[in-house]
């Protein structure tokens, strides 16, 4: 038997957003005692404490944080269902995650076409590493994400959407790199841990017993490529990104072994896809 209703979740969410019972009651045009009672009833039905007191403030418990993520998803689906039944088209906010490289080299024409077809949808694009994006999809913080192999997401639905060729880039004066051992003693330039390309490169180096002299972490490919061009070290990037940034002439490219250079980008999501997500999947797989 279902123990949660949307009205209780609306009251719960208002308490979170407004930062307390009194402000939530004013926002919802309810008496304070009614809001307090509804929160207590919700906690009793779930058998969990949703809030903890810190002085005079109410702070979400871990269980409350999880419930809030589900509540936001339920309200979004309810709004979407109502909008689509009225208009026949997806509407509302659609939060999508992406690798920075995919956003820079692949998504602009796709999202532009999506906007033309479905102007009632507001796309919010966030970027991050594959590991971080998978976690955000799992927690329902974003609806879907474009992530790269290798990644682990056993609970998520997956759709293979792009094939990428990864290339090793070095300063232009570096001789041809034909094996991992040629990179011994040089500096690895990469995103933070959680980056799937970094993991693939480190696995290749590790299989040959090669350790970089040091690792420098950056938050953008433009910065990484500039650092490589300046002679600081080496990195691995998608060839399509080099072309989109028109940066191929600034660095030297080296072909990687087939098992390393061949890579796929996947679209992942959690549970039943929304109408907006179904429309996006038809664009990227068509």
Question: What are the segments in which pLDDT stays under 50 over at least 5 consecutive residues?
Answer: none
Mean pLDDT, nearest integer?
A: 87
Total domain count: 3
Helix content: 40-55%
The total count of strands amounts to: 11
State the CATH superfamily name of the largest domain.
Answer: Periplasmic binding protein-like II
CATH architecture of the largest domain: 3-Layer(aba) Sandwich
Using the CA coordinates, give the radius of gyration. Answer: 24 Å
CATH fold label of the largest domain: D-Maltodextrin-Binding Protein, domain 2
CATH class of the largest domain: Alpha Beta
End-to-end span in angstroms? 41 Å
Q: What's the story with the biggest beta sheet? A: 7 strands, mixed
| Residue fraction in strands | 15-25%
> How would you describe the shape?
elongated
What does this protein look like?
This protein has twelve helices and eleven strands. The chain is an alpha/beta fold. Strands 3, 4, 5, 6, 9, 10 and 11 form a seven-stranded mixed beta sheet that branches. Strands 1-2 form a two-stranded antiparallel sheet. The model has no long low-confidence stretch (mean pLDDT 87).
Which properties best describe this structure?
286 residues, alpha/beta, Arc Repressor Mutant, subunit A, D-Maltodextrin-Binding Protein, domain 2, 3 domains, two-stranded antiparallel sheet
């Amino acid at each position: 038997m279902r123990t949660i209703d949307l009205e209780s979740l609306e009251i719960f969410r208002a308490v979170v957003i407004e930062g307390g019972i009194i402000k939530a009651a004013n926002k919802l045009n309810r008496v304070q005692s009614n809001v307090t009672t509804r929160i207590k009833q919700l906690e009793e039905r779930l058998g969990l404490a949703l809030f903890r007191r810190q002085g005079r403030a109410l702070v979400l418990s871990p269980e409350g944080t999880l419930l809030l993520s589900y509540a936001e998803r339920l309200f979004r689906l309810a709004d979407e269902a109502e909008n689509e039944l009225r208009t026949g088209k997806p509407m509302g906010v659609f939060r999508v995650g992406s690798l920075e490289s995919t956003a820079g080299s692949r998504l602009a024409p796709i999202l532009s076409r999506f906007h033309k077809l479905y102007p009632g949808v507001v796309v919010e694009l966030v970027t991050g590493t594959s590991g971080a994006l998978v976690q955000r999809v799992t927690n329902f913080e974003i609806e879907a994400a474009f992530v790269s192999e290798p990644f682990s997401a056993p609970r998520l639905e997956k759709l293979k959407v792009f094939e990428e060729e990864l290339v090793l880039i070095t300063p232009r004066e570096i001789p041809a790199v034909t094996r991992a051992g040629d990179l011994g003693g040089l500096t690895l330039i990469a995103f933070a841990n959680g980056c799937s390309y970094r993991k693939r490169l480190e696995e290749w180096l590790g299989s040959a017993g090669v350790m970089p002299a040091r690792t420098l972490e950056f938050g953008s490919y433009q910065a990484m490529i500039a650092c490589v061009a300046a002679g600081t070290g080496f990195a691995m990037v998608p060839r399509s990104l080099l072309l989109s940034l028109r940066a191929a002439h600034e660095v030297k490219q080296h072909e990687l072994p087939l098992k390393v250079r061949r890579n796929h980008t996947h679209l992942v999501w959690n549970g039943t896809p929304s109408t907006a997500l179904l429309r996006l999947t038809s664009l990227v797989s068509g």
